[in-house]
Amino acid sequence: MKDPCLKPTRPVGALALLALASPLTAQNLLTIEARDDKPGPVEALVEARDATGGVLDSTTIFWDADDDGWRSLPVGGFALPTGTTTVRVTYKNDFGPRDLFIDFISVDGNVCDGPDFRADGGPDPSFPGANETILDGRSVADLGNQDDWVEYTVAPLLSIEARDDKPGPVEALVEAKDSGGAVLASSTILWDADDNGWRSLPAGGMTLPIGTARVRVTFKNDSFTPGDPDLDRNLFIDTYEVSGFTHEAEDYCVDGGAGVGVVDGRTVADLGNQNDYVEYELALAKQTIRLGSPANPFGFRRGDTPPIIGETWDPLVTTFQSGAILAVVAVSGGPTNIPLGGPGTLLCDPTLAPLAVLGAPGVNFAIPIPEVCIFVGQGLCTQGVSVDAFGAFAFANALDIVIGSH
């Protein structure tokens, strides 16, 4: 299953419990880091498109490239509408020749490198418009001609590992729903269960549009007849995988008649009757940097693993404070901005169920996130703090996080 472009940078503990009360939400803000290699005005068209290629929203970006520098476009970001699956960037004014270089795009801080495009709209196949090259030590996308474009997939891929316990045709409906229950995308899956084996559904994965908050799996053809066990069939779901992160299927959030059982030594969701369903919560894990005002040092960094259920979140407090002997991740249910003079600016509200996780400066933390779907989509304010041998402390930036399924 091909991963989407975006890369988001177990016991139930206090951190996970705190997430239940958090008000933080994601905005799906797109930014593009780009430059032009010639002086003068630049024009680029950015489009948010749905799964059929329809344009949901767009913005035209203008800037003067006289300084030949990298810039974040559009200023303030571009909010991707619900239903977005791809972003297309079209270079509108290449007048012979000039190039638009894209270093990366990001959605709420989750990065897709420029060359990792999914579709190349170069008008001449013998001279493709989007080429992978290196500029200033960065791998970038190069759009060489007027109206060339590249597209990036910003929607995750879903795959479900399932089996049926009776031979014959099987039908299941998979629906991507927004937070209000509206269906954004769906796929009806048909297969023959004669081999009674596990399979990945849908084949090749299903793209989940931006704004997907839940996935519902409905078992459509359990021909149950009381007293006739041969017609009572079950659909067993072992795991669901979103953008390469696998979760156990028994961690469903909504039960539409399904029970939980064990089959072949696996804990699975068992949909026992026709039109039974289960729902799973989905959200992209996010870590948004906030320096505060006055700004704190950028000493609290993202690690390799984002805050995802079933994973271990590993942020880092650097050695930004001279003589630091202790690193702290302060956590609360919401943000604030309180200047405190010498130590810096307090960025997490201490009145909202605060807690602290202790560690060492320059060493990644290991903070387990429980694999419980109720935490998916919940936000927290986290801030790095450093303490020296004399007890003096210094604030770093905040990471406003959203706990995700992927």
Overview of the structural elements:
The strands form 8 sheets. Strands 1, 4, 6, 7, 9 and 10 form a 6-stranded antiparallel β-sheet that branches. Strands 12, 15, 17, 18, 20 and 21 form a 6-stranded antiparallel β-sheet that branches. Strands 3-2-5-11-8 form a 5-stranded antiparallel β-sheet, with no helix packed on it. It is 1% helix and 50% strand. The model is unreliable at 8-25 and 125-129 (pLDDT under 50). The protein has one helix at 14-18; strands at 29-36, 41-49, 55-64, 71-79, 86-91, 100-107, 110-113, 119-120, 130-135, 138-143, 149-153, 157-164, 169-177, 183-192, 199-207, 214-219, 235-242, 245-248, 254-255, 259-263, 266-271, 277-281, 286-290, 300-301, 312-313, 316-317, 324-332, 335-339, 345-348, 355-359, 367-368, 379-388, 393-402. The chain contains 1 helix and 33 strands.
* CA-based shape: flat
Overall mean confidence score, pLDDT: 82
State the end-to-end CA separation: 15 Å
Number of helices: 1
Counted beta strands: 33
Q: Percent helix among the residues?
A: under 10%
What structural category characterises the helix and strand content? mainly beta
- Largest sheet: number of strands, sense, barrel closure: 6 strands, antiparallel
Determine the strand fraction and express it as a percent band.
over 45%
- Radius of gyration, rounded? 24 Å
Instruction: Using the 3D structure, state the CATH architecture of the largest domain.
Output: Sandwich
Give the number of domains: 3
CATH fold-level assignment of the largest domain: Lipoxygenase-1
Reading off the top of the CATH hierarchy, the class of the largest domain is best stated as: Mainly Beta
The oligomeric status of these chains comes to single chain
| Low-confidence parts | 8-25, 125-129
